[in-house]
Structures are given as C-alpha cells and as structure tokens.
Amino acid sequence: MSAATVGLTFNVTPAVKRAPADERERILANPGFGRVFSEHMAIASWDRARGWHDAIVRPYGPIAMDPGTSVLHYAQAVFEGLKAYRQKDGRIAVFRPEANANRFRRSARRLALPELPDSAFVEAIDLLVRLDADWVPTEPEHSLYLRPFMYASEVNLTVHPSDAVTFVLIASPSASYFPSGVKPVTVWLSEDFSRAAPGGTGDAKTGGNYAGSLLAQAQAAENGCDQVVWLDAIEHRWVEEMGGMNLFFVFGSGAKARLVTPELTGTLLPGVTRDSLLMLGKDLGYEVEEGRISVEQWQAGCADGSLTEAFACGTAAVITPVGAAKSARASWVIGDGKPGAVSMRLRSALVDIQRGAAPDVHRWMHAVPLA
Ligand code: COI
User: Distance, CA 244 to ligand 1 centroid (Å)?
Assistant: First the structure.
C-alpha cells in the first residue's frame, strides 16, 4: 500500500500483530498526557542530494541513533503539536493541520532545517490516524495528540546545518494536559530568566526554548506557583507567554468584554489556538485586540476591577484560567480567582467545534479519510 503526496510517497507497512482491544481500552480509559503512544509512526528522510525520500508509516518503535548524531549535541530540531478528535458522529477530524504544517515550515526555516511540504505533513497525519483510528479516544476531554518533529540526523560534530534530517510523526492518546483539568493556575512572573530575545528563536517551535524554560519553571514551583510567566527580555515589563502557552486578558465582562493578547513581536510563539481564539472571540461578539500589556497594567487592572479574567491557551490544554499572579515584589488575584465566564465560554465554543458539536464556520476541521 502506498500513498503519493507532492514529491514524497509514504509506504505503509502495518503492524502484523495489533494490540488486543481490551488492552487498548484499558489504556484509553486513563491515558494521561503524552505517556502512551499508538501503534504506528511515520518517518521520512532528507538529505541535501536527494531531498525528501524513504517515507514510511510503520509500527511504532525506538529509533537507533549514533552517539555522534548532530541533534544530540546542537539541538537542531523543531516540532509541532495538534490533535485528532473523535467527532460526535464517530468520524475523526484534525484541528487546523494546515496551520501547523505552515508553522512547522517556518520553524524549520529558522533552525536551518529543510521545509517539509504541507501536503506531506497532512498526508502523514491522514495515513497514521487512519491506521490507528481505534486509538482516537471517545471521552469528551480526550483526543489523539499528534507530535510531528524533525531533527538533524547527520553524524558529525562540526556546528553546521545538518546534511541529513529525519522527520517523524507519532501519536499519543491523551487526556487533559494539566491533571487538574481547567482548575485556575497561579503564575510566577520570572524576572531572573528570559524565554526569548529579539532575533532569537522565540517564534519557532524548537525544543531549546522549552529546555531553557525548565529552571524558571522550577523557580515558579519553589515560589508556590504552577507556571512561569515570561516577560520581554529587554525591559522585563511586557507580558509575553505562560510556560509554553499564549496568554489572553479579559477587560470588562458580559457582551462588552474586550480580549487582549500580547502581540507577536517575534519573541512569542504564534499559537494556533491563540489565532483561533482571536477569530472565535470576534464571532462571539467580543472586541479583540493584539497589543502590549505590562505587569503594572495587569496588576492595576485587577486592583481597579477593569481586568476581570486571564487565561493561557495552547493545543495541549486548550484554555487554562489564570487565577493569581505573583512576582518577587507583589502578588494579586485575577477576578475572583475562579474560571471566568468569558474564558469558559470561549473554551466551550472551541471544544464544540473540535468535537463536531458546533458548525465549523471557519473550515478548521480536517476530516481524516477513513478506509
Ligand atoms: C501546547 O500548548 O500545545 C504546547 O505547545 C505544549 C506542548 C509542548 C506539550
């Protein structure tokens, strides 16, 4: 069996023996996040002479790696995260795969990696999800989290753009990212560390950005907080992101609420959920704005009641309310510290589209062609 895409053909070699249904059901009942994987993976190679080649969907399993493989030393790698959802009618659809394919190419360009054609990105997803359709959960808050990634696979210790690159797609049946679900998080405003600086890799989805965040995340935990909030690297004043997620602030309430999210300055990750919520916010009649918000404005807005809600958004956790903020100098509660009405309305509106329970007016859902 093979499937053609522009310039790249994935050969499909299914597992000879599949997991018994009862074992699969046991795993799907309590999958956690990103700790169990479906039965297949897609993999493709690239080199400077041949371009993309040797694409295959095959049983999931370890990748043997020479210790001199470039990515292990210099971290030339990018990844994506998106989800396949079981629809109300039993079919399977993936949320905005073209948007992730596009960002994957942009991230690759920034990391001097080759661009994978969008058609190959989507084809790999279609083939893998079709083969592992039984691994797409049916529980409302569960989904099949898709993790495409690409890394420098040349065996060479000189620092240079790798002459050999590997693309892999794996899939993980997953529940909520945060075990506590939509419980509001308390955030620590990091003034000692920066996630990204102008000209850096902040707007690319590359593992190094996450590796560099871990110490600040540990500091947040030491200060009794769940997550770290990143400020701009120059003035340590402008709010950028929370952990690996974008942030939104809600001013006012009810139909008159105004949503503000930090603008994409080049140091923020252009989140697909962020982009979707900007559109959805407008659809729901809110005023939406990409702008700058300082720590002082955040604190003052909470003190005078004009800033009513804050939430983080991303593929993995969808929308996570932010209940309180803390820095070395101050701490304050956002609204009443509970999930806000606007945040939860946006969350349900998005989740309903993702599950096929509301009209997909923006044509975000990509139906996976099942056999
Ligand atoms: C997301 O919010 O989807 C993320 O990017 C988090 C991921 C690194 C687990």
Answer: 6
Residue-wise pLDDT tens digits, 265-291 = 999 999 999 999 999 999 999 999 999
Q: Which atom of ligand 1 is nearest to the CA of 205?
A: 5
How many C-beta atoms lie closer than 10 Å to residue 89's C-beta?
7
Instruction: Tell me what pLDDT residue 178 has.
Output: 82
Q: Is 307 in the pocket of ligand 1 (CB under 6 A)?
A: no
Predicted model pTM: 0.96
CA distances (Å), origin 292, targets 146, 238, 265, 298: 32, 7, 10, 11
Give me the domains of the chain, ranges plus CATH numbers. Answer: 2-174 (3.30.470.10), 185-354 (3.20.10.10)
The answer to whether the CB of 81 is under 6 A from ligand 1 is yes
User: What is the DSSP-derived secondary structure letter of residue 73?
Assistant: H
Residue closest via CA to ligand 1's atom 8 equals 244
Residues 193, 371: Cα–Cα separation, whole Å = 49
CA end-to-end span of the chain, whole Å?
12
Place of tokens 């023996």: 17
Q: Which of 276, 277, 315 to mutate to test the pocket of ligand 1 (most atoms within 8 A of CB)?
A: 315
| Chain segment 299-324, per-residue pLDDT in tens | 999 999 999 999 999 999 899 999 99
